Amino acid sequence: MYRWLVIPIFVIACVAVSSIPQYAFSADKQTVDKELTTFIQQLFANRAKYLLRQEDGLLRDFYMPERASSMRAMKHEQMRAQYVQTWVKHRQLRLADAASSPRVIRAHKRNDQVFVSAVDSLRLGYTYNQPSSQVELFGIGTRHALTLIRKNGSWKVLREWYLDPLEENPDLIPKLTELPRNSASNRVNAKTNQSSGLHSTSTRYNRDKAIDYANKYAGIAWGAGNNHRYNPRYRDYTGQGGDCTNFASQCIGDQEGGGLRMKGGWHHYRSGGSKAWVQTDAFKNFLLYSGYGKVIKKGSYTGIVQASNQHPNGAWAGLKAGDLIGYELNGDIDHFSIVVGFDAQGYPLVNSHTADRYRVPFDLGWDKYTMYWLIHIRD
């Protein structure tokens, strides 16, 4: 599951919301002219630059102040940048890199308007506020449906909607009071981009392969493999409530991945996945009751980071690459991701679908009300 961002904001039933991208991507096939492609490339390039430096001139020429829907679209990009900059500040970081690689999928022209479906692979990078800190790169993939309109001989954004993992209130970001103090094994792990114990002789859960699978099939996120495509052997649930749990199940259960045996209602068939395979809460319950997983801790960001008698380095220090994180909102699990490694300071990095993430800091895009389920997958 995940939250849909719709610009402009509508009150729409879940089925209607999920159909918006499908409608946009079903537009008539036409040759996308060079001018339109150039506009899309420049639009996304300037948005990426705006994440680094909030200069209004980077966005202003792409929007129309006299159209409310256009201004809402621009306002979203401004709030997105404010969120990212606030997050890096609270994590004692500096945003050091941002670059977009958009691709037009469909374009359907009608009179002076054009309906565009596009995908964007956004690369972001941060450094710690320390001497000689290396740039940590990660990727986010988003799917966009835009309506453009001609004005004075050039294209402008009339409206846009997309599923945005960075759509959060910057005022709700919990602060990190000190740098991570993960275990020694995870510090070694952070330098090698592998998890401790990955080469276990256990045949039950293959962490190496689970992580390789997560990196290969992370979709349109920058850094992902497989030509930015999902595994075609599986149904894509993006338009049916979200594909995150389906992807987490694949990572730990596919023979190309972690190789856990399907059992107890957790199955994938040719027609799709069972309830426990694709639904967040059912998947969490299966993991715990099957014995495949155990909870390290459930808590807020502060609760899992702070040291305690049980977790002297914070509960998050117990995570290994190949473990899972569930994200609870209002009493229900809303999202799942898989831990694929740690940065140079031991900060957990995750991959997921809906929206697509590749080695993203685990809490980016969430707030102080999010409850994190840190789930260790037994070897």
UniProtKB/TrEMBL annotation:
PANTHER family: EXPORTED PROTEIN, EXPORTED PROTEIN-RELATED. Signal peptide: none annotated. Residues 183-202 are annotated as: Disordered. Residues 204-371 form the Putative amidase domain. This is Putative amidase domain-containing protein.
